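Data deposition worksheet. Section B asks for the primary sequence of the deposited chain exactly as it was used as input, without tags or linkers unless they were present during the calculation. Section C holds the resulting structure in token form. Section D is free text for depositor observations; keep each observation to a single sentence. Incomplete worksheets are returned to the depositor.
Section A, Depositor: J.P.
Section B:
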Amino acid sequence: MQRYAAIDIGSNAIRMLFVEVYERPEGVSFKKLSLVRLPIRLGADAFVDGRISEKKRQQVIQMAHSFNYLSNIFEVQNYRATATSAMRDSENGPELINEILEKTGVNIEIIAGEEEAQILHEAILSTGKIQDDESYMLIDVGGGSTEINFFVKGERVAWKSFNLGTVRLKEGIQKEGSWEKFDAWIQKKVKKYNPHYAVGTGGNINKLYKLCGHSDWENLTADEIEVKLEYLSGFSAEQMVDTMDIKPDRADVILHGGAIYLRAMRQGGIEEMIVPKVGLADGLIRSLYMADVKELA
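Section C:
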């Protein structure tokens, strides 16, 4: 039995995941011990002001201290911490990373969108629900960016990151022509690779999946997403929080997130989406485990 942890510092929130790994004759299993989601929206600073504010800086440092305490309690043997779009775009992102390392000992890597997509892909494949002989379009929507990947027979054949994220759209700071480039690229790649399904990852699609009444790997359709978004548009963010069990920092971006998934599916002519409900933190832990296995081999 091994215990691992991961930190995913995103643009809309920060997640800390703690997992226990069991090796049995029938295979390896990953048991979640705890998932802590912190509503620290770095993208609101990074995408508007170009730097992380003093308040958010202090919050991230406190998060790292908390991670150390929890890692001691869970007796974590190894961890990996990464930061994505908001930290990449912040002028003082590298400075904050160094400060966290100095004050807490927590080492955080700022990773590129390409590596983020590869880690996610490995997490999805590890579920055992994705067929290696199929073709897929993976849509991962975050607060700062959307990653679109095409996979054919288990191999990633095309990838692109777009600065179209939920926090950027909420703040109205997407660049002119972004949607046109998004549409054109997807149409071109779909024509070449002919994906049969979309695969959706991210907190917004996970919530929409639940709101549509799905569970246990049932496919979600583009029409269902469209109908649900139209329904939700009749509510304010405050009403969603009060009546639908949606967190405040999800309620004010879920329509933006849903619109990105839906647009990608419509542009690709794809009707069905698989929602594996795994994220970057899951992939980080699986990659840590596989690296340890390789080292011991």
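Section D:
Residues 136 and 197 are 5 Å apart (CA to CA).
The chain has a mean pLDDT of 93.
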